[in-house]
């Protein structure tokens, strides 16, 4: 399923005459001058797909109604979504005449409450006739991800229960036995680390002081470990860091001559770059390419991979790529409640890139 057409009327920069956007299956790029409505288009799609959901990340507000050149604010706004290749089980939006099509519509109105204040209300329906129900179940069948232009990707990749890494892990380890296997490994790791004298002593000191303070009333004890042996704890503690592609081997290294010989061959030259005083080696690629490397040589190469750096030390642009990779990874897995996938992305700040908006559908 993919978005074929979006019609927007009286929403932000789009006036009473309305505008029609037509899309193709795959990746669509919207290019235009600043303040021409690219972001408004993205937000209109997000608002439409979240109108009946309990949990929203965007709302239609009173300031979203279009204001014309004379300063008059519209009393209603409408967003119409037309879809192609719609599965028949999405009966609320499926078109029985054009059997591969579907549509739904949302109207927002500004109405007076009994107290005399303005309040935004909406009506949503599926199909051509107003009144047909449009439930949250239908909209939840669409996996929609919004990648904003000004996103703190480094912060969103930090360890937490709601991080993108945690969401991806939960999607991949979706069977009870897979989760239990991870928990058992964590439980074993906790037991092994507690065998160290320093941690064992730490645990002992805490429990002795606790007993002294609470005077045996509760007689509770604490346990120590990496994290509590629960799957949710694994999700919340999952983190990522950057490992460099190239690693340096000095000319005084015992295996320098052997690796230097490989550089002279056409097959391995792309993975080894000679510099003053040594070699820069793409170790992972070299080991994968040459299965006949001696075990001792492989171990020596792997020992060079000692350094890495944190996400926050990385550039903003590359961190955004990492974030998008996690989002795409999560969306690539089939989920029984997700029948189609859409990605909405804004541009980034800058004279040129601020004028680009991307809409992708059915990437997988």
Describe this structure as you would to a colleague:
Residues 1-220 form the Endonuclease GajA/Old nuclease/RecF-like AAA domain. InterPro entries: AAA_GajA/Old/RecF-like, Bact_Antivir_Def_Nuclease, P-loop_NTPase. This is AAA family ATPase. The chain has 364 residues and is of the alpha+beta class. 31% of the residues lie in helices and 23% in strands. It is built from eleven helices and 14 strands. Strands 2-1-4-5-6 form a five-stranded antiparallel β-sheet, covered by helices on one side. Helix 4 (164-172) packs antiparallel against helix 7 (231-237) and helix 4 (164-172) runs parallel beside helix 11. Residues 348-356 have low confidence and may be disordered.
Short note summarizing the structure:
The protein is of the alpha+beta class and about 375 residues long.
The secondary-structure element order is: EEEHEEEHEHHHHHEEHEEHHEHEE
User: Termini, distance in Å?
Assistant: 11 Å
Alpha carbon gyration radius? 28 Å
For the secondary structure, the number of strands is 14
Strand content: 15-25%
Shape: extended
Chart the SSEs and their pairings.
Elements: E1 2-9, E2 19-22, E3 26-31, H1 38-49, E4 76-84, E5 101-112, E6 118-126, H2 136-140, E7 142-147, H3 153-156, H4 164-172, H5 176-193, H6 197-214, H7 231-237, E8 241-242, E9 246-250, H8 256-263, E10 272-275, E11 278-282, H9 283-289, H10 295-303, E12 309-310, H11 316-332, E13 340-345, E14 356-361
Parallel strand pairs: 7-13
Antiparallel strand pairs: 1-2, 1-4, 3-14, 4-5, 5-6, 8-12, 9-11, 10-11, 13-14
Pfam families: AAA_15
Protein name: AAA family ATPase
Domain Endonuclease GajA/Old nuclease/RecF-like AAA: 1-220
